[in-house]
Structures are given as structure tokens and as C-alpha cells.
């Protein structure tokens, strides 16, 4: 029995990145320390100005002019008012002497800093607390004097609101560590400390902010889920409507095309000694009706039932173009085909799209320019396939009847070309005809290396 051991790679030789300990407790502790470093140290000086409030509230929407503009800065005004209260708590008891004014400025700076650099404001608040405690004269309320106590609570609240619960938890722990050190090491000549009051009060405030964060996140997730649900419901409704329309179209058109095919087959037997041209015309009508019916069932039959199996008949390609042109010529359209370049087999999507584009262009010629001649040019080039279908103007424009269609032929051709990242132009010619030019790119086949 052979036992194989994997050598333990030291951190510098670990090919998969940083060394990861196996113990889940150690990994959790390291992840927590990395989160603390990112929240309180790496992003300490990040510039994050507090944006104006969106005027979406009922009260804000009713305001007009400058009042509405001022209402969007309500959060800034509220923070400034809290800083002003901290300043007054420093100036009012001792009078407006230089020390009280300096202490007021020291407690005001971190509060205002929360509007632009929230994490830096927390560190500034701890520094301000130390400076005010040094300058102030009191035997109690150590280490937070009343102005610092209020200022630090405001900073903790604003920063917790502007960041996330994890950052609030780390700020609370650092505040507790600061209070512990100040109480155990620097508490000489002080009869009372307020570390416990700060810890309890700040914990309650941060707990309320955390609950607010959780509720807000839950509301955002519910709103996002409702939006997705509404979008899916609209999409499903649209698909159901399209399915219904497609089924009705399939039923109606299939019925009429079947009637046309049957009548075209039976029509020669209703006339004694019909001319040969008439019989050929009825045969052509029936073949076109059957071909259209087959194509319609192939395209729309899949929406008629979930277990519908599409027939295995191959899709038309450019090899079937001669049959299409022969069919068009029998309707009276004089069409010419010109091929340039070396003909080669192209991807199935390109072949099918090229066939459909030629078919639609010739159909438009039959509808809009009866009696005109057409020319189909196919160019096999190195980078793809070029198509040009151009028709002359109709011999007698006064006899051209308005087309009953909705004009989706050109749009359908453009969709096919866009799907293949090709280019297309469709415009009248100077002679009064119409020209459709298409280029379908075909990526060159990459040869396999030896």
C-alpha cells in the first residue's frame, strides 16, 4: 500500500495566490481583519461627498423654487445643526473664552468632515476627543467631555448611516478600545469616567442604524424582485399574445392556402379541353400554394403545440436559387442572374439569409414594378458574399396598385443582415427602379496547424 503526501507549500511558494489556512475559524478571523483594514484604514481618506437628497418625498414634491432646492440639502443641514449643538455645549457653560471656542471648533470639525470623508471623520473624532480632554478642566466625564460626547455620537451615527453595519461594528470596537485605554492608563486625577455611558448609548444608536440598513436592503431587494417579476410578467404576456397571433395566423393562412391548392388542382377539370398554358398556370399556382403552406407550417407550427416536432426538410440555400428564379419567370418577371467569383459553400445561416433576401426583393419587384425586368448579382469575394438585386422602373406606372402589405419586407431583410453583422442599402435608382445591395461577411476558415 503506497501513501502519497502532498508537500505543504510555504506562502512565498504558493502558486495559487495568498496562503490560506485550513482552519475555518482562522480564515474567518483573517477575513474580518482584512475587512477592518479595508473599511477603516485603506479607505480612511476616501472622498465620498454626501449627495443631495432626491426630491421624491411627498413634502419635497410640493415645494417649488429655492425651497425645493434647499429641501434636497436637508441632510446636510441636519448634520450642521448637530455640529452647532456640540459647539454650543462647549461655549455656553464656560462662556466664549478662547479655550471653549477652540474646543467648539475641535468638536465641530469631525461632524462636518462626515459630509465628505466619513471614515476619516471617525479618526478625527477620536483625536478631537483627546485634544478637548487635554484642554478642558474637569474631574469627571473622562475621557469624553460633554461636547466631545455629543460630537462622537453624531459622528458614529452619520458614518454608520453612510457606510455599512460592518464598519459601524468596527468603529464601536475601536471606541471601546479607546475608552478602555483612557480609563485604565490616563485616568489619574479623574473621579468618574463615562466610557460605560458611551458604550451603551453608541451601541443602541448603532443597533438602530443597523436595523435601518437591514430594512432598507430588504426593501431594495423586494423592489428589485418586484421589478423583475413585472418584467417577466410583461414578457410572458407578450409571448402569449404573439403565440396566439401566430396560431391564428397559422390557422387562417393555412386554411386559405389549402383551399387555393385544391381549387387550382380541380380548376382544369371544370373546363373542357383547357389550353396547355392554362393547365401549366394552375399547376404553378398549386405548387406555389403547397410550397407556401409547407413553409408556413415549418415556421409557425412550432408555436401550435409544445410537443410539435419541426419537419426535417432542409432549408433553402443559394443552390435552390435557380428554382426560385424559374418560378418567378413563370409569373411574367424577366429576371437575370449573374455570378462573379468562385462559387463555394457558405455557412447555413448566410445561405438561408441570402436566399430569403433575394426572394423578398423579387417579391417586392412583382408587387411594386409589375412588368419590369430584374437582375440578381451574386458575388463571392474573399471576405464574404455580395448581393445586388435591381429592377427597372415599371413600364406603365399608372397601372401599379398600392400594395396592401404593411411594408415589413425591407425591415425583415435588414434584420437578417444585422443578425449576420452585414451591411445593406435599399434605395431607388436614378432610372426610376429600385436597388437592394447587401454584403454578408463570412469569416475565413482557419487552417489547422500541423
List keywords for this structure.
alpha+beta; single chain; 5 strands; disordered N terminus; five-stranded mixed sheet; 13 helices; 450 residues
* Number of strand elements: 5
Distance between the termini: 43 Å
Q: How large is the radius of gyration?
A: 41 Å
Widest β-sheet, arrangement of strands: 1-2-3-5-4
Low-confidence sequence ranges: 1-17, 446-450
SS element count, helices: 13
Helix content: 55-70%
Write the H/E string, N to C: HHHHHHHHHHHEHEEHEE
- Beta-strand content bin: 5-15%
What about the largest sheet?
Answer: 5 strands, mixed
What does this structure look like?
It is a single chain. The protein is an alpha+beta fold and 450 residues long. Helices cover 58% and strands 8% of the residues. The protein has 13 helices and five strands. The protein has helices at 24-42, 58-62, 66-71, 74-94, 98-113, 118-135, 146-162, 165-184, 195-266, 276-300, 321-330, 348-368, 409-419; strands at 334-340, 373-381, 384-391, 423-428, 434-441. Strands 1-2-3-5-4 form a five-stranded mixed β-sheet, with helices on one face. Strand 4 and strand 5 (434-441) form a beta hairpin. Helix 5 runs parallel beside helix 7 and helix 8 runs antiparallel to helix 9 (195-266). The radius of gyration is 41 Å and the shape is rod-shaped. 20% of the residues are buried. Mean pLDDT is 82; it is low at 1-17 and 446-450.
